[in-house]
Design brief:
Elements: E1 2-5, H1 17-30, E2 37-40, H2 47-55, E3 59-63, H3 69-76, E4 81-82, H4 90-95, E5 104-112, E6 118-120, H5 127-133, E7 136-142, E8 189-195, H6 209-227, E9 238-240, H7 244-255, E10 261-264, E11 267-268, H8 270-278, E12 281-286, E13 288-289, H9 293-301, H10 303-309, E14 310-312, H11 315-318, H12 321-327, E15 330-334, E16 337-339, E17 344-345, E18 348-349, E19 353-354, H13 361-367, E20 370-374, E21 378-379, E22 384-385, E23 387-388, E24 403-406, E25 409-412, H14 418-429, H15 435-448, H16 463-471
Parallel strand pairs: 1-2, 1-5, 2-3, 3-4, 5-7, 7-8, 9-15, 10-12, 11-13, 12-14, 15-20, 16-23, 20-24
Antiparallel strand pairs: 5-6, 16-17, 18-19, 21-22, 24-25
Length: about 475
């Protein structure tokens, strides 16, 4: 069976049904019966869903994004098939039948109205699509989700498949173009499960020196762009990936005196709550909350304020290429590594071991006004360089990458040829311990490469990764 479940970055996922299902799967396995399902979600979920189902062998196939350690391990051991896909494509693929029939939807909601409409939970994700397409629906009504969520959502029902598409009537991040509730055909609802329990969310570490330096380079760059007339004083709508670096950048914007900002993104993090509460961000559009326990407490305490400034949408709208391009989003995303020419790997270690997935970074990198990728210049206690001759896996090609930032500096790649990009990346972003190795490779490639448009020494291009696998270090 193919089961569409709610959940996006650890928010709004079903908490009871997956655990009950896992118990039944374990019993079946104890009897020697094979049992596994295809699980589709909005993005990552939590141990009560991904973890418990993976641990009992109950997942045969998973998409589109994951972060659970148990699930990741089984994917990398070849026990679960995993499809990494742009988050903005999932609903379209499902409606087009590319995933086959959706047998069951299991969706957490914050409440059910007397007329059958559903109050969405702390994430929307692909819930609209699963509710529309599934043959049967199970609702988990979570009494512990904040009652003040009602009215924060904007569910748009105007999308269509080619050739029947029409422009989506959204012109600013705060525009409401839909309705506050999800719809479901009551005849498809086979169970309503009353549950309690909070989302399983992880505390964020305070920004360290490395994150603060990355944020400082970006803030300085934004000021430069404003001074050159290439960006308005209140920037353009921000899209920010999840993590400590993203939170540090948001903090840097507030400390840098920026005002009247907006966000058109996937998740609302702690750093964005701070900016909304202080008035630095006036409007934020997303598909989910991704808050630490302290962030959740703050959200509940000030929920009336946040409801006026936050709009939660289906991810087919939050990540829609038409809207990202129209609004001119500034994309700020993390990465594993970048190569000399600006190709970016966001998902794999040494080309074959998946970490989490591409998520929505590609939706914004290709379609946004400015595509920025951020990372510390080294990993593994300084043994691994984030800047390499050739990335071991490509998620974002050089054509979709405008800016690379490490704590060492910022490389503006716009308007540069491949060789020019290589020089500026080495000069401004590489760690001093690895800069001589990169310069040596690039200079020799410029002398001996088969072609000189994008110089490479193919026998050496991935040697840094092989050295890491053999010795635990990329150092020569």
């Amino acid at each position: 069976m193919t089961v569409g479940m709610s959940g996006f970055t650890g928010a709004g996922y079903p908490k009871a049904v997956p655990q009950a299902l896992a118990a039944q799967i374990q019993s079946a396995h104890d009897r020697g019966e094979a049992f596994g399902i295809r699980v589709l979600t909005g993005a990552s979920t939590a141990p009560e869903l991904d973890g418990v189902l993976a641990r009992t062998g109950g997942i045969d196939f998973r998409l589109p994004y994951q972060s659970d350690p148990e699930l990741r391990a089984r994917i990398n051991h070849g026990q679960i098939e995993y499809m990494d896909i742009h988050l903005g494509h999932v609903a379209q693929y499902a409606w087009s039948g590319f995933f086959g029939d959706i047998d069951v939807a299991v969706i957490e909601v914050a409440g059910v109205l007397p007329d059958g409409r559903l109050i969405p939970s702390t994430s929307v994700g692909n819930n609209k699509t699963w509710l529309d397409l599934a043959a049967k629906v199970v609702l988990e009504v979570n009494r512990d989700q904040p009652a003040g969520l009602e009215g924060m959502h904007d569910i748009y029902y105007g999308t269509a498949l080619p050739p029947h598409r029409k422009p989506i009537p959204l012109l600013a991040p705060g525009d409401r173009i839909g309705e506050p509730y999800l719809r479901v055909d009551p005849d498809k609802v086979v169970a309503v499960v009353e549950t309690g329990g909070h989302d399983r969310l992880t505390p964020f570490a305070a920004p360290d020196d490395t994150s603060a330096r990355i944020a400082g380079h970006l803030v300085e760059f934004f000021r430069h762009e404003i001074a050159r007339g290439r960006m308005p004083g209140n920037l353009l709508p921000l899209q920010s990936g999840v993590g400590n670096i993203a939170n540090a950048v948001l903090l840097g914007l507030r400390e840098g005196g920026f005002e009247q900002l907006s966000a058109y993104t996937e998740v609302i993090q702690d750093g964005m709550l701070d900016l909304i509460r202080s008035g630095t961000i006036t409007t934020a559009s997303a598909t989910a909350l991704s808050l630490s326990p302290d962030g959740v407490a703050d959200f509940v305490e000030h929920i009336d304020t946040y409801r006026r400034r936050i709009v939660l949408r289906p991810q087919e709208i939050s990540n829609h290429a038409e809207l990202v391009r129209r609004l001119g989003c500034i994309a700020l995303n993390g990465m594993v590594e970048a190569d000399l020419y600006g190709n970016v790997n966001s998902t794999h270690v040494a080309g074959s071991r998946i970490i989490n997935g591409i998520g929505g970074s590609g939706d914004f990198a290709r379609n946004g006004f400015l595509s920025c990728f951020l990372t510390p210049s080294t990993a593994k206690h300084g043994q691994v360089s984030a800047l390499v001759p050739m990335v071991s896996h490509v998620d974002h090609t050089e054509h979709d990458v405008a800016v690379v930032v490490t704590e060492q500096g910022l490389a503006d790649l716009r308007g540069l040829s491949p060789k020019q990009r290589a020089r500026v990346i080495i000069e401004r972003c590489a760690h001093p311990d690895f800069k001589p190795q990169l310069e040596d490779y690039f200079q020799r490639a410029c002398r001996h490469s088969y072609g000189l448009q994008t110089p490479h020494l193919l026998p050496e291009a991935l040697s840094w990764h092989q050295r890491f696998l053999d010795t635990g270090s990329m150092r020569a």
